[in-house]
Amino acid sequence: GPLIFFFVLFSVPKVEVDSGIESVQLPVEIKAHLPKDIKVEWKDGSYRKIHIYQNGSDQFEEQDKVYRDRTEIDEDLLNTGDLSLTLKYPTDWDTNTYTCILLSREGKILLKRKVELKVRGLFVCLFVCLFFLSDCLVSPLQGEFRSRIKQGTSGTEAAPLIRLL
Asked: Which of 88, 102, 116, 121 is most buried, judged by most C-beta within 10 A?
């Protein structure tokens, strides 16, 4: 007979925040009782370990140094099913796709969920805006200043232009 395939598509949750906020939560919740011997791993798009929970506690020694002292998960996750990760002080460098992996004691993947984080960086916007703004304001004045120098005007006549810069 014909084979029938069923696909369950989960949309990847997207979280968007501004750089400079105190923290952001990457949501992952399950409605199942979790055994005590499970392992929860959060990784970024480069497979760096962001947060590890195993044997009833956080395993900070396995955590990548970029995320040291910046992550938290629910201490009661075995009872609540809340595997969400809290990332403190996010910056535009934290924009990434993050993966929460739930593993059995034997290392079998029980659940894998992705969350997309977009951190709107103030620094990048400020830099780009200042770069283009300075280019628009300074270039015409520099051109006028250069043309006056070529025409042989004295330095005192160019002084008002310099003060504008």
From this structure: 102
